[in-house]
Amino acid sequence: MKNLKYFLTGIVFLASFFACDDILDQKNPNQLDTTNFWKTESDLSAGLNACYRALRFNGEYRRWLHILYVSRSDEGYSTSPNPTFVSYSNFLTENSDAAECVLYTWLDLYKGIFWANQVLDNAPSIEMDDEARNRVMGQAQFLRGVGYFNIAGVYGRGPIYTTANAEAATVIYEQPDLYRQAQKDFEESEKLLPTEWDNPAVNLGRATKGSALGMQVKVAGQLHEWDKVKSVSESIFALKNSAGQTLYSLVAYDDNFTEANENNAESLFEVQFMSGPVNGVEQLSQERAKFLGLPANECSYDDATASNIVKTDLQREKTKDGKDDPRLKSTLCYYDPAATNELFYGKTWTAWGLNQSKVYWKKYTNWNTKTKETHEDNGINFRVVRLADIYLMYAEALNELGQTSASYEYINRVRARSNIPNLENSSVFTGIGNDQSKMRTQLRHERSCELAGESWRWLDLERWGMFDTEENVAWLRSRDSEFQNFVIGQSNRFPIPYREIHLVPELEQNPGYK
Length: 514
Prior knowledge:
Elements: H1 41-54, H2 58-62, H3 64-71, E1 76-77, H4 83-89, H5 100-122, H6 130-154, E2 157-159, E3 172-174, H7 175-192, H8 200-203, H9 209-222, H10 226-238, E4 267-271, H11 288-292, E5 305-306, H12 308-314, H13 326-331, E6 332-334, E7 343-344, E8 347-348, H14 349-352, E9 359-361, E10 382-386, H15 387-400, H16 404-417, H17 436-451, H18 457-463, H19 470-479, H20 498-503
Antiparallel strand pairs: 1-5, 2-3, 4-10, 6-9, 7-8
Helix pairs in contact: 1-5, 1-6, 5-6, 6-7, 7-9, 9-10, 9-15, 10-15, 15-16, 15-17, 16-17
């Protein structure tokens, strides 16, 4: 199997799951299709690589998922010159197939699911070593789970397909069932995936047992299955590498957002990106920085901007030696009057003529290594799940299970990396003690500081019930004025693409959309 960081091309023969207008069903006998391709282990490997490639499509982690999970949450907003982008962020999205985010997020997620199903359907009949087959199937099942997890988080409704057979009965499922399908996929893939891959230089970036466990934690959290969050987190903490050492550990904070230390000890799973062509073949580079970065020198379109509330959160506490939380400089580009010579893409804030009152996302950008961002030159891998997130999910589970005092240890592990005082010693956040409700509020802050801009905030808010009551939405409005347009029972879901309502039997539009 090829190193996914350098995987060159997808499989062009794999057809989209979605049909267009009926056409004459005629096949070219000289052209490969899904009925005559799957014959060898090499074919299966190529099909699996196509499943990974789907993660890098515009509708997934290359572009649109970040707009949906970051800009729509309370940590982002949009003043884009493109009114469609503004509508996404302001809860004014109309169901139009001309709205790319509406359509292509759905299409690309289901493409990945369809391709994973092809691998799972055909793997049992291909002659190959059983262990190798299991590892292929484990990866495909994991990737299918990622697809259903995001369908649940974005749309909250959709069909579940566990086979590529187009004639399979269509059943429409609501969000809990979509999450449970993802959960089942992650649990089954855990049984088949290795803790570590042999020959890591070749298999770098492939899903592992830790990847599957990490996503189990995430989906169990969305389902409020706190016993499961706790037990699965503990399984992650217990994993050992081939030398018998603890497999996962925290690394330098900045190493989670650059090309310098990818696939590191903190990363449970990340999407592999590559900038520029390899062997003459263009790559699907990461476009997040082009849409969510600094609007200087055409670096970013400023389609989704960081909210000043992120800076405010990160400035609430100082380090043990009285300095700013170092995560502030790692997370945001902003004007610092104490560092007026600080360079962003080769120039100072003043030289770029940037608004001194605004802040912009720094994570996953080339702010200190290049002079501009383009659609083709950002090869920074996107870390989907990392250990610090699991520590905070574990702390949340302990708190929900009435073990609030035990949660401090795991919150403090995350704070310690940034030299922030232990929570029980904080001079800012006092009086929490063993109060479960106060700890819930504190965890909102801890996750905001540690994970800002990492495409988890929207799902955090959903898990905490922040979209469900007027009181909670009012709190969101106090942090992000765009929530003035939020409609309870509607705005927590994205509209299902208009064309899919007509193509998929029994699929109904989400409430409040046409």
